[in-house]
Amino acid sequence: MSIQTVSQIIRSRRAYFPKTYSSRPIDPSIIEEVIENANWAPTHKRTEPWRYRIFHSLSSRQRLANAIAKAFKEFVPPEAYTEAKAQDHAEKALLSGCVMAIIMHRDEKAGLPEWEEIASTAMSVQNMWLTCASYEIGSYWATAGFIFKLGDILELKESERCLGLFYMGYVQEGTFAPALRNPIADKIKWMQ
To answer: What's the per-residue H, E or C state across the chain?
Structure first.
């Protein structure tokens, strides 16, 4: 593999939101490859803290959508709640070809700081995102506060914590998100 190929995949990765997804289904073999690549993220002491709950079938995504609407209602203060906002969040699961709940599993015996396990899980998600980009599948990592209310549907263990939902779907024809990055020169300092 060339550095040009790697750079192109990294630089083509974008957040594509579910409203831009087409109805084209994602083959389960692609989802399996996305997950397999996620499994190759760096991990301190080989704790491999990433776990995923996969909602691929329409019925599982419908159950997730219902749980999202309920969690949103429980999380948002009554004065800020509207049925339309709850349905907007829930609809994302139905517009997607697949949704994965991103779970961090803590191994207390390993003695690692939580931030290291979160960072490792995030690197796993980056591997998923890059794999999706190489398949021209749009994806988006949502971290809304109500995710902490999804424990029941995710069947979380005491040692697990949901870090967000990863939405995936083929992007509708003509939808392209331009690259928005400030120059790297503004972010570095060569130390002497």
So the answer is: CCHHHHHHHHHHCCECCHHHECCCCCCHHHHHHHHHHHCCCCCHHHCCCEEEEEECCHHHHHHHHHHHHHHHHHHCCHHHCCHHHHHHHHHHHHHCCEEEEEEEECCHHHCCCHHHHHHHHHHHHHHHHHHHHHCCEEEEEECCHHHHHCHHHHCCCCCEEEEEEEEEEEECCCCCCCCCCCCHHHHCCCCC
User: Which phi and psi (to 5°) does residue 142 adopt?
Assistant: -100, 135
pLDDT score for 180: 82
Q: What confidence tens digit (pLDDT) does each residue in 132-185 have?
A: 999 999 999 999 999 999 989 999 999 999 999 999 999 998 887 777 889 999
CA 78 vs CA 65, 82, 147: distances in Å: 20, 8, 18
Looking at residue 111, its amino acid is: G
Residue-wise pLDDT tens digits, 51-100 = 999 999 999 999 999 999 999 999 999 999 999 999 999 999 999 999 99
| Neighbour tally for 173: CB within 10 Å | 7
